[in-house]
Amino acid sequence: MRVIVIGRGVFGLAAASAIVRKGHQVVVVGPRDSGASSEDISRIIRDDYAGDEFHRSWAGEAIDGWRRWNASEVLFRQTGLASVTLEPMDSTTFAGASFANLASARRLDAVGVTGLLGFLTPGRFVDGYLNTGAGWADASAALRFMERDCESQGVGVVPEKVAQIGDGWVGLMDDGLLRADRVVVAAGAWTPRLVPETRPILTPAGQPVLYLRPAETARFRDVPVWALDLETTGFYGFPATPDGVVKVGHHGPGITERLEVRTVSDPVVGSFRKFFQEAAPGLVGARVARTRVCFYCDAPGGRFLVDRVPGRPGVVVAAGGSGHGFKFAPVIGELIAAVALDEDHPRRAATAWRPPGPRGDAARAGAIRQPPR
To answer: What is the mean pLDDT of the chain?
Structure first.
């Protein structure tokens, strides 16, 4: 068959690689977008999913996949993930339930938290754990790795924007027309615009991210990825890069749904700084090198949507990353390929088309609002 994959993020590239390996012709369509959610300096790789066995077990398989990729190119740094809490953990909290379901975690008390993350306010975070099997991936390097894999297998690329999608065809912005037996739409937060049937189910959610240059960069080197009572505050961050940049993000309902908004407003930056004053004095006064809005494509319950579009059997949607899709890059392609080629896959039923429902996940925090622009 001839298959068109729309989108050059991890879902699209993973799907293209998996489908072409099964002997089919594949063309990936879309420009490389430097502002797309897959393009970044880092992404958390973890299997911390509280009592969500579906994602926890699959994330474990994905981490094994990242380790296999590391044999060719080091993309995954297993620094660990420190999830720390403002109150003692118990089974009703995301951190407590995650700790209970992790095989590679050790508990931290208030002294252990400060010893591990010295840039935090001493005694502010009293409990938590270190997931030693987690870490982070170089997002942009991983995309280039996946692109080279696709290129080596003969996947074609059409770097044009898509205007319209039909059952078996794709219309381009330059009035070009491509035909195929299957069209896989893996366009992230742009998916609801390209496939109107998904609009009641999928919602773009722009999350604020700051890239900071703290005065004392050494305090952020050789530390794990960190999550600061994620379900309450929403704040998380990464070790400093070699050139001294510390990435800090917020995992919440989002600040905007407008896909054209790519930078974070001053009031939202101010909300980050207020939090730093209370909880992370090591970041107070850090210079903002740049900001970005990272767009999630939220699906009900945070579970991916990978299925044929009702009434259009030749169109497959692979979206709904909900802020945690990147970590599944080594395994998501096989699922998308199975749906596109009508083959069996153990995760297929769980990611099928479903009615609208609450978006987000158990780790989401309260809102940070960005004024409209």
So the answer is: 95
Which backbone phi and psi does 183 adopt, to 5 degrees? -120, 120
| Of 259, 256, 258, 287, nearest in space to 272 by CA | 287
Q: What does the block give as tokens for 144?
A: 């280039």
Strand, coil or helix: 241? coil
Closest CA to 227 of 117, 336, 89, 319: 117
List the structure tokens of 131: 């997931």
237 contact partners, CB below 8 Å, separation of at least 6: 225, 226, 228, 246, 247, 248, 249
For residue 359, which phi and psi values (nearest 5 degrees)?
-95, 175
How many other β-carbons are positioned within 10 Å of the β-carbon of residue 40?
Answer: 22
138 Rama sector, left if φ>0, alpha if ψ -120 to 50, beta otherwise: beta
What pLDDT, on a 0 to 100 scale, did the predictor assign at position 32?
Answer: 86
Q: Which of 55, 36, 25 is nearest to 187 (CA)?
A: 36
| Contact indicator for 140, 249 with CB cutoff of 8 Å | no
pLDDT digits (tens, 9 = 90+) for 112-162: 999 999 999 999 999 999 999 999 999 999 999 999 999 999 999 999 999
- Which residues have CB under 8 Å from 338's CB, separation 6+? 344, 345, 348
Q: What is the DSSP string of 32-52?
A: --TTSTT-SS-EEE----TT-
The SS3 assignment for 148 reads helix
Measuring CA to CA, how many Å separate 69 from each of 137, 329, 331?
Answer: 11, 11, 12
Inter-CA distances, 134 with 125, 218, 247, 292, 357, Å: 20, 22, 17, 24, 30
230-240 confidence digits (pLDDT tens): 999 999 999 99
Can you tell me the distance from the alpha carbon of 205 to that of 1, in angstroms, rounded to the nearest whole number?
Answer: 35
